[in-house]
Design brief:
The chain has 13 helices and 5 strands. It starts with a strand and ends in a 5-residue tail after the last helix. With about 220 residues, it is of the alpha/beta class. It folds into 2 domains: about 5-15 and about 90-215, Rossmann fold (3-Layer(aba) Sandwich); about 20-85, no CATH class. Helix content is about 50%, strand content about 10%. Strands 3-2-1-4-5 form a 5-stranded parallel sheet, sandwiched between helices. The radius of gyration is 19 Å and the shape is elongated.
Length: about 220
């Protein structure tokens, strides 16, 4: 049975970038949406891995679009980009908090650039504190679905891969985790995630009232 739940961030606890926010980014760049988002995603990996700064990333996007961005435009794009990934799912945050209260060990693994990582640390510390390990790709130079990202987390947790359950909303990341030896759950919603977590949560201590641990997670007594 796994000892730790290793969560993905975006698409699980935090919300993915909305179409409205994506359009706003293209407008800030002054570029056609289709061309902009092709460059935005195609050039993203080195930024998520911490190999280029935010300014360098946006300069590369500009070059791909056949233009240049002044410093103030780059600053506006970084601000808009961070804002586009800021929203969280309050129900999933509550599940994280309830799981931690029930004694479940939690960790986090996210593909995320430095500016966004720092933003989450500043503004979401209330619930990030429940994770004994918070791993951002920009800080370790490894990103999902690279097996090294999962194994890095396992080493830091001091656990064999088979003692970790990974939860992610992207099938390629889930399959890669399984190939690396982790248990994995494809996130499709709160209820299924709660059941997956419930299966590995600590059981009540001998002599504790029946249903104590289940009640802590809001599950059946």
């Amino acid at each position: 049975m796994p000892d730790v739940i290793l969560f993905d961030l975006f698409g699980v606890i935090a919300r993915n970038q909305s179409p409205t926010a994506a359009r706003a980014l293209a407008e800030t760049a002054g570029a056609p949406p289709t061309e902009f988002h092709d460059a935005y995603w195609r050039l993203r990996a080195p930024y998520d891995l911490g190999r280029v700064t935010g300014a360098e990333y946006w300069q590369r996007v500009a070059a791909a679009l056949g233009t240049t961005f002044a410093d103030d435009r780059i600053a506006a794009l970084i601000t808009a980009d961070v804002a586009s990934w800021h929203a969280v799912d309050d129900d999933m945050v509550a599940l994280v908090e309830q799981s931690a209260a029930a004694g479940v060990r939690l960790a986090l693994l996210s593909n995320i650039p430095e500016e966004l990582a720092a933003h989450y640390e500043r503004h979401h510390g209330r619930w990030l504190r429940h994770f004994e390990l918070v791993t951002f790709s920009c800080r370790i130079g490894l990103a999902k679905p690279d097996a090294g990202a999962y194994l890095w987390c396992c080493r830091e947790l001091g656990l064999a891969p088979g003692r970790v359950l990974f939860i992610d909303d992207r099938s390629e990341n889930v399959h890669a985790a399984e190939r690396a030896g982790l248990h994995a759950h494809l996130f499709t919603g709160l209820d299924a995630a709660a059941r997956a977590i419930d299966a590995v949560r600590p059981q009540p201590m001998p002599g504790a009232p029946p249903g104590t641990a289940a009640a802590a997670l809001g599950g059946p007594a």
